[in-house]
């Protein structure tokens, strides 16, 4: 399963439009869609629309000023069926149509839905606020996270059954029970791996061992030091982390590492618990919605977090809302969806493939649209310097330009090089 496109209507700041999510660039790693734009451009709202189409409209409802009058509709199409999420004065309904349509026909499909909801209801299953995830291709998962959430220590019991909650719970960006689920799930998985190791024969089961190895290798790669989970039996059963040779409780870990565990490891723990009989749950088709994963992370970790997730979940479709040029430049195989604010306050989307080899400097200017590189005061001085330089082309009086240039050059070597270069250009122009 993958989401091909969504149609958004009557949801500020978006215009009525279809946003396409093009096919993955590579098939051997997870598919990534990076959503960028300024504050207020609707990045988190777009993720909330996706969460609503997948089964939990509550995140979006919280962002509507008047959900009865704003009349929001979203249509999500994938390879197997169409989901229509509708909000009107009767409440929230999600309809699943058991066949697929090309995303370019979503607009006309939406029109027929609007004309006669009763007729549509006879052909679709109205499932209220919950959309059970299912697929003829087998099991699949869908989770939502925010980079600001962090794992906390939570009480565990030996091989206790995990209470995963409802489908919509795992599509809540601020799911309150995440730490309890993660700690108990990881403890169960680690103990299962230990038992597999004890009874392991030549052709014995290695499911839990392989899951744990892939997970711990992924976290170690991001964190730059060897990371592993451990279950302690005495004096009470608890799960701890080994990082860089130190045995630590989760609450003792750096906030950045706790943030990574709060969503990356949670995906593994939940997939293992949801599908205990699947031989390779990390390879299950998965949809991830992640809001600002760069929170709490040093730039070195920001550059690794999404590529590592692509490798860990090779059949995933990952939607990421981010402000970070380091996250954006780290993805070579994926798509960037630039939400652009128009003069009337509405937002339109422009989708481009992630370019290979772009630096974070390229991303800052080309994707995030920032052309200013210095602090506000220095930028003001540079503006004044360039205005004086243009004026000197007419008056041929270079003294004010040179004085302003000296003031700027005293601020640093890089600025001095800029001033010298631009003054040389001015001299050449005056000579000509």
State the distance separating the first and last CA atoms. 65 Å
Give unreliable regions as ranges: 115-138
- The H/E string reads EEEHHEEEHHEEHHEEEHEHEHEEHHHH
Number of domains in the coordinates?
3
The quaternary organization reads as: single chain
Specify Rg, calculated over alpha carbons: 26 Å
User: What is the spatial order of strands in the main beta sheet?
Assistant: 2-1-4-5-6-7
Helix content: 25-40%
Beta strand %: 15-25%
Helical stretch tally? 13
Characterize the overall form.
elongated
User: What average pLDDT do the residues reach?
Assistant: 80
Tell me how many strands there are: 15
Q: In this structure, how is the largest beta sheet organized?
A: 6 strands, antiparallel
Q: Kindly name the structural category.
A: alpha/beta
Keywords:
432 residues; alpha/beta; six-stranded antiparallel sheet; six-stranded mixed sheet; 20% strand; elongated
Commentary on this structure:
The chain is α/β, with parallel strands linked by helices. It has 3 domains: 3-22 and 38-140 and 330-366, no CATH class; 143-252, no CATH class; 376-431, no CATH class. It contains 13 helices and 15 strands. The chain has helices at 43-54, 58-61, 106-115, 117-123, 178-199, 207-223, 255-274, 299-312, 325-330, 360-366, 376-395, 399-409, 413-431; strands spanning 3-9, 17-20, 31-36, 73-78, 82-88, 91-97, 125-126, 141-146, 227-232, 238-243, 246-248, 286-291, 316-321, 335-341, 347-353. The strands form 3 sheets. It has a 6-stranded antiparallel sheet, sandwiched between helices. A 6-stranded mixed sheet has the order 8-12-13-3-14-15, with helices on both faces. It has a 3-stranded antiparallel sheet with strand order 9-10-11. The chain is elongated and about 85 Å long. Residues 115-138 have low confidence and may be disordered.
């Amino acid at each position: 399963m993958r989401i091909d496109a969504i149609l958004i209507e009557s949801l500020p700041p978006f215009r009525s439009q279809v946003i396409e999510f093009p096919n993955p660039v590579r098939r051997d790693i997870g598919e990534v869609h990076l959503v960028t734009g300024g504050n207020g451009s609707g990045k988190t709202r777009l993720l909330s629309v996706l969460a609503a189409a997948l089964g939990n409209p509550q995140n979006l409802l919280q962002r509507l000023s008047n959900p009865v009058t704003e009349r929001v509709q979203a249509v999500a199409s994938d390879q197997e069926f169409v989901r229509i999420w509708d909000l009107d004065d009767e409440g929230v309904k999600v309809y699943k149509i058991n066949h697929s349509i090309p995303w370019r026909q979503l607009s006309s499909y939406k029109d027929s839905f609007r004309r006669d909801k009763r007729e549509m209801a006879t052909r679709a299953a109205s499932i209220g606020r919950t959309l059970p995830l299912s697929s003829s291709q087998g099991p699949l998962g869908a989770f939502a996270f925010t980079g600001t959430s962090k794992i906390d220590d939570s009480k565990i019991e030996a091989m206790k059954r995990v209470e995963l909650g409802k489908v919509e719970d795992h599509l809540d960006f601020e799911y309150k029970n995440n730490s309890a689920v993660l700690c108990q799930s990881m403890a169960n998985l680690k103990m299962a791996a230990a038992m597999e190791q004890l009874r392991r024969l030549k052709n014995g089961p290695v499911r839990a061992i392989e899951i744990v190895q892939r997970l711990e290798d992924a976290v170690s790669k991001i964190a730059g030091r060897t990371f592993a989970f451990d279950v302690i039996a005495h004096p009470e059963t608890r799960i701890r982390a080994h990082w860089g040779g130190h045995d630590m409780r989760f609450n003792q870990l750096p906030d950045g590492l706790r943030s990574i565990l709060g969503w990356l490891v949670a995906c593994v723990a939940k997939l293992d618990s949801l599908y205990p009989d699947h031989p390779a749950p990390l390879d299950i088709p998965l949809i991830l919605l992640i809001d600002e994963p760069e929170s709490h992370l040093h730039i070195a970790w920001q550059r690794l977090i999404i590529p590592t997730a692509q490798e860990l979940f090779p059949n995933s479709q990952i939607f990421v809302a981010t402000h970070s040029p380091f996250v954006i430049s780290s993805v070579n195989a994926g798509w960037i969806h630039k939400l652009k604010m128009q003069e009337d306050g509405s937002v339109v989307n422009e989708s481009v493939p992630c370019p290979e080899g772009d630096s974070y400097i390229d991303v800052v200017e080309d994707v995030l649209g920032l052309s200013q590189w210095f602090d506000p005061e220095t930028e003001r001085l540079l503006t004044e310097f360039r205005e004086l330089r243009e004026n000197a082309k007419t008056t041929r009086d270079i003294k004010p330009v040179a004085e302003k240039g000296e003031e700027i050059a005293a601020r640093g070597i890089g600025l001095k090089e800029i001033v010298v270069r631009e003054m040389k250009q001015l001299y050449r122009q005056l000579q000509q």
